[in-house]
Design goal:
By secondary structure, this protein is an alpha/beta fold. It has 14 helices and 15 strands.
């Protein structure tokens, strides 16, 4: 009788284990959640949806006939809207992972919601470094940039080139405050100083008063701790004020190729910026970019770093599902964290235990109009920050997952 009970327990555990390794609803649903109608629509928007679709097509069932569906929604840059969508996807619509999510406030709320759920959060565009720090979650993988990397690597590159005195134009939002804070720590720790800072609302159209303050500060570097349409407007108006022509250097902490295209190379020339991805870096990035540009609705546009991150993170997630036979976060995320190798779009890549995807970062300068030889030929490489220097050290994040 005792042996029969043991056999029944063993059989039950095997059945339970097999069930846990199955794909829910026999389909993997990935929800692209981003800003489709606002200031991030060019850097993310429907381009991110197409990038996720490309990843699903390239995965092609993973050799196991795994079905993949891509759904999408607009979070409108509102944390409550984003959370409501995520909750519906989790409770009603059987979505297995959320990818993209520009806007740190939205991303942090979703990170909390999905923690310890069955869903995976592929925070490929959420910039808050808290995702791999005090808010780290066993369900979250963070690709592309974060505020620590953006603030520190950009500040380091500029300080090393003589940019000691800074003035910040910062969006009054979690993203901007995080970037400025990280950059200021680096600047002051390396003999520089922050002369001043102006905070502006998200979606500002008139930067005149802020730029006048920055100009009158005589700071060597004016740091734009914002993104999307805010950065575009600030750069355009800085050109009208002749800020760079008068000797001050303008650096954008979070700018993408789409933004440069939108403002025009004549306006953006000489601008310094940090990127994790550039479409014209090598044969692999060019091949991806040309495919992306030919997708429905893209009309020849080159992908941003965020859109490349959607592709890379979605494909890595799907490959982990193929390896584990499960689409549940507790199975998939640990499998993703085993990866160490070369990503076609981001180069030498490691996924750490805190969920941070580590890869090189690049300081670029926007070319002069006469230096650009073909469409979207906008950047010249100034310096490369190796993967092991580009992100906050694992032990310093305060993430309980690595203790």
């Amino acid at each position: 009788m005792k042996h029969l009970k043991c056999a029944l327990v063993l059989a039950a555990s095997l059945i339970s284990g097999a069930a846990s390794a199955e794909i829910s609803d026999n389909v993997v649903r990935i929800g692209v959640l981003n800003d489709i109608s606002g200031i991030f629509q060019d850097t993310n928007g429907m381009g991110s949806v197409e990038a996720a679709r490309m990843a699903a097509e390239d995965f092609n069932g993973g050799g196991k006939n795994i079905k993949v569906e891509i759904v999408y929604a607009d979070h409108q840059n509102k944390a409550d809207v984003g959370s409501a969508i995520a909750r519906k996807w989790l409770d009603v619509e059987g979505v297995d992972a959320i990818v993209d999510v520009p806007n740190s406030a939205v991303g942090l709320s979703i990170n909390t919601l999905l923690r310890d759920s069955r869903m995976t959060f592929l925070a490929s565009s959420t910039a808050s470094s808290d995702l791999t720090g005090k808010a780290c979650s066993p369900n979250t993988i963070q690709w592309v940039n974060d505020t620590w990397a953006t603030g520190n690597t950009t500040a380091a590159a500029m300080v090393s080139r003589g940019g000691k005195d800074w003035y910040f134009l910062t969006v009054d939002f979690a993203l901007g405050k995080g970037i400025e804070s990280e950059a200021q720590k680096y600047i002051e720790a390396h003999g520089g100083k922050v002369i001043g800072s102006s905070k502006h609302p998200l979606g500002t159209s008139d930067f005149a008063s802020f730029l006048l303050q920055a100009q009158s500060s005589k700071a060597q570097v004016i740091g734009l701790a914002n993104a999307g349409g805010d950065t575009i407007n600030a750069v355009k108006q800085a050109a009208e004020f002749g800020i760079q022509q008068n000797g001050q250097r303008l650096v954008a902490f979070l700018l993408f190729i789409n933004d440069v295209h939108g403002m025009g190379i004549k306006v953006a020339q000489g601008l310094q910026l940090m990127e994790a991805f550039y479409w014209d870096m090598n044969d692999d990035t060019r091949a991806f970019a040309k495919r992306f540009a030919a997708r429905p609705g893209m009309n020849g546009k080159m992908p941003s770093g965020n859109q490349a991150g959607v592709y890379a993170s979605t494909l890595a997630y799907l490959n982990a599902i193929a390896a584990t036979g499960s689409d549940i976060a507790k199975d998939v995320v640990p499998e993703m964290k085993k990866f160490k190798g070369k990503d076609r779009l981001f180069g030498d890549t490691t996924i750490r235990q805190d969920g941070r995807v580590v890869h090189p970062m690049y300081l670029f300068e926007v070319k002069k109009p006469e230096e650009s030889k073909y469409p979207y030929d906008y950047y010249k490489l100034v310096s490369t920050i190796p993967a092991d220097q580009a992100f906050r050290p694992l032990a310093e994040g305060g993430c309980e997952l690595v203790k």
